[in-house]
Amino acid sequence: MLERQSRVEAALDAVLPVSAHAPGGLHSAMRYAALGGGKRIRPLLAYAAGELVEADVKRADAVATAVELIHAYSLVHDDMPCMDNDNLRRGKPTVHVEYDDATALLVGDSLQSLAFQVLSENILCDDAARQLSMVEILASASGSRGMAGGQAIDLDSVGTSLSLPELEFMHVHKTGALIRASVQLGVMCGGTLDETDRESLDRFAKLAGLGFQVIDDLLDAESSTVTLGKTAGKDANDNKPTYVSVLGADRSRDLAQELCDDAMRALDHLPDGGARLRDIAHFIFHRKF
């Protein structure tokens, strides 16, 4: 995992414009947002899924870079005053605090467009139609029927009570869509899986995405700002519905374990039992930061 994290960091560094190129302030802020922090869960999942089908690691580099650029853009926008209004991300001031609101808005826009540039200017697979489908998958996962739509539901839900199915629907989109796309795109860089294996892998990704959010909610409620690298307890302070507010901490921990067990079972019949994906799932479900 450390090797893959370093690999995607180098790939991000290579594609992000340097601040010496105009507009230097924007390029500096883009690098500030995307480099030097984060667990890189989505790239790790893309690499691991690619390994299942013996994908060329250089092709996986492009996919891993693109999904992380989309994730980084979403964090920049999510932290802005018009959204969650947070001042800390990955242990440092958020982009709109370090720079300004207008720059943060443009950083998010630029990181998003750069993600699609990376997907379109690299050879990701041997079939042009398949590569076009890969672009569509990331676009769909990022838009109103994916991550952005989930964020809209999240904003509309402040101060309201959601049922568990409503909460899951929100996070299947807000958090889960990009995680699911990361796995799908990683596989599409390599060979093919039969329909049963594809369905099992997709089920794993959906469960991992939900589990990631359950753990996030628990950490927000129970960890410190120093440990998290972002403002702890902010969801409760902002009166946002979370798994902890809906279920309580103990039941949320039980749910996380259930999701983990189901995710592991989904990998049973995959090549090598999806060993690398199991490692990443263990990290997702048992992380303390």
**Count of individual domains:** 1
Largest sheet: 2 strands, antiparallel
CATH superfamily: Farnesyl Diphosphate Synthase
Name of the CATH class: Mainly Alpha
Helix content: over 70%
Overall average residue pLDDT: 94
Query: In total, how many beta strands?
Result: 2
Neighbour order of strands in the largest sheet: 1-2
Fill in the keyword field for this structure.
289 residues, two-stranded antiparallel sheet, 2 strands
Description:
The chain has a two-stranded antiparallel ribbon with strand order 1-2. The protein has one domain (2-286): Farnesyl Diphosphate Synthase. The protein has helices at residues 2-15, 24-34, 41-52, 57-78, 95-98, 101-121, 128-142, 147-156, 164-174, 176-188, 195-222, 225-228, 234-237, 243-247, 249-266, 275-286, and strands at 88-89, 92-93. A hairpin with a 2-residue loop joins strand 1 and strand 2 (92-93). With 289 residues, it is an all-alpha fold. The chain is 71% helix and 1% strand. It is globular. It is built from 16 helices and 2 strands.
SSE order and pairing:
Blueprint: H1 2-15, H2 24-34, H3 41-52, H4 57-78, E1 88-89, E2 92-93, H5 95-98, H6 101-121, H7 128-142, H8 147-156, H9 164-174, H10 176-188, H11 195-222, H12 225-228, H13 234-237, H14 243-247, H15 249-266, H16 275-286
Antiparallel strand pairs: 1-2
Quick gist of this model?
It contains 16 helices and 2 strands. It is an all-alpha fold.
